[in-house]
Amino acid sequence: MSYILQHRPLCLASSSPRRKELLQKFNLAFDCYSPQIDEIRKKKEQAESFVKRMAIEKARKVQQSCLNLAKDVIVLAGDTIVFFNGQILGKPKTANHAKSMLRQLNGNLHSVLSGYSILDSASGNEITDVVCTRVKFQKIPLDLLEWYVSTGEPMGKSGAYSIQGQGLILVESIVGSYNNVVGFPIENIISHMSDNGWISYSKKT
Amino acid sequence: MSYILQHRPLCLASSSPRRKELLQKFNLAFDCYSPQIDEIRKKKEQAESFVKRMAIEKARKVQQSCLNLAKDVIVLAGDTIVFFNGQILGKPKTANHAKSMLRQLNGNLHSVLSGYSILDSASGNEITDVVCTRVKFQKIPLDLLEWYVSTGEPMGKSGAYSIQGQGLILVESIVGSYNNVVGFPIENIISHMSDNGWISYSKKT
Asked: What's the ipTM?
């Protein structure tokens, strides 16, 4: 039995190679645009609200500003933050900054929050949600943290690590969705798209 | 700052491509042998004991039968089972078998147990352990399960799914180590090897 993949035109409003790879696993064809938005948290804005707002703004920005998109395109955006001790840990600016972030996380539990937005350009409907995964770091000796920073992998990564790279050595266990930590909860996103008929696998006749 | 990777000769007693990939992430050089052992659970043998015994037997078999290995080789073996409702779900024999396994797991919680053994040929010391990850499946519509089986991915996989492939769509959340479900808990294995000085990253002078 073989199947044909059908789906609405798809656009990923993100430049994250991890999110691209997650979509590519399902053989989905998509355009990719990197939206420019102000990623500044409002005063007293909850982490969940912030990450959701970022995803919504990214999707809308791409849908409104990319004029060559199909009229019925589905725009997909995500935003991920690492949240520890009431603080958002962004992307490290220097190797020392990365080391200091990793020292904070070392041996402790933190949250990874991914907001996502799936925007149907044809109807204007948006599906948005936030998913939280709890991540427990091992107690890592400082020389191993130094080695990890020297690999360069922490740069450009929220919280200064990549769970699917050599950074896996830092992680003892997780509770929740693994893909949520990688980029976004692709399992939920595919389910929503499937429930709405935006993606389907039909039997070949 | 750059580092030099040094490690004892290493041999992976497994033919699993997933386990190979996990080791390759750390740029480790290793030989690879697939041991032939009887993978039969003894009467009343606990799942944990079984999977640990399998890992130990695989490591010993390779260490004893592969005559061209270095005398100080570290042999690494792993065995993974999917455990649901008191039963071990092995590798599916046919597509229908895969479908029936996935129907059992659908919407439910199961355990993935990986036993591993790290055998130091020079001293005869063995480090062995079993790690358990709890995996919760989404409630997947039957046509999606059928599509998943049609991809061929379930064949050759314990429990008929691959968490790092398109099978990720089945999984709602996990509790524990993700790599444990992929192949073995590489984070623990690297930590043990590092603690014992079998692997080290030294600063370049």
From this structure: 0.91
